[in-house]
Amino acid sequence: MHVLGVLERGAGRETLERAVDRLVGELSTRGRVGVVHYDATIADGTSTVDHPSLTIGGDVTYELGADGDWLASGTGLSVQEALDTLATNCDYALVTGVSELRYPCVVVGPDRDSVPEETDVLATAATVADLESDVIADRLERSEPHETLESLVDRVKDSPLADRAGAIATFTGRVRAKDSADDDRTEYLEFEKYEGVADERLAALREELESRDGVYAVEMHHRTGVVRDGEDIVFVVVLAGHRREAFRTVEDGIDRLKDEVPLFKKEVTVDDEFWVHDRE
Fold this sequence. Notes:
Rossmann fold; 7-stranded mixed β-sheet; Aldehyde Oxidoreductase, domain 3; 2 domains; alpha/beta
């Protein structure tokens, strides 16, 4: 699922809503769309994290944009949790109300240049009429998708060979805060990939694993950018005829992904930051 933030700068709520409607109209011609709204004005102060998309305590509502079917609303949900839920049945998601989203964004309004420097801006527009929704959708599809373990498991279950499968094995890698009690706590890892080459090698590895006897589908995903303490980094999912093929392929898959796919990792602790390959 591809996620797009919609930021309003000096245009007003009505303009934001019309921008969302315009983008939903374009994206719904390409797949199923979810919309997530975050309202920080009623936050109750229960948040224990500093990133807006992880905040619990405002009002989070999410729906299927194409159908208008409300799925959930309430203060016990984070934007990230809403996106994780939508990832299993949506191709796209739009997010409003989060000013520092970790996903690509479009900015609408006369003050469209007033966004944080690190924001990944796909397009800006003074008015809704200036939004080139088809161009934005094309750019969004070239961005890294939002995947969860559940969305990848659902995908392998859709394999035409699923009737022959008796096993699904998975691996999830996550950010480890410490190797031992005396270590400095890791706040986050930051991953960069060798553009083009990393995707090609990951696709080739997946194809090779799927060619094994008794293996019917393989899904692999590695996040890039900032991944915080406790968050998931990488998933490997294997659909196979029997457990042995499934377990063996998952283990080989994660080992070879780490060895063969060019991804560069920066570690940021409470006291230091460094690129891991510089210390190996």
